[in-house]
Amino acid sequence: MKGGVGKTTLTKELGYFMADSKKKKILFIDLDPQSNLTQSFFLTY
């Protein structure tokens, strides 16, 4: 898929939703060479 379509955001939000609703741990495996998903967990706002 092309960039800027929300893949990272969707993956992260679905993971949080599944973990919260099922009270389970979620493992994210980031295979993107840019590591956007991994980097998104370390941002401070």
What labels would you give this structure?
single chain; P-loop_NTPase; AAA domain-containing protein; DNA_Partitioning_ATPase; mainly alpha; globular; 45 residues
Structural class: mainly alpha
- What is the string of SSEs from the N terminus onward? HH
Number of strands: 0
**Percent of sequence in beta strands:** under 5%
**What integer value in Å does the Rg equal?**
11 Å
The number of helical runs is 2
Straight-line N-to-C gap: 27 Å
Global geometry: globular
Number of domains: 1
List the helices and strands and how they pair.
Blueprint: H1 7-22, H2 36-40
Descriptive report:
This protein has one domain (7-40). The longest helix has 16 residues, at 7-22. It contains 2 helices and no strands. It has helices at residues 7-22, 36-40. By secondary structure, the protein is mainly α.
Give a quick rundown of the structure.
Helices cover 47% and strands 0% of the residues. By secondary structure, it is an all-alpha fold. The protein has one domain.
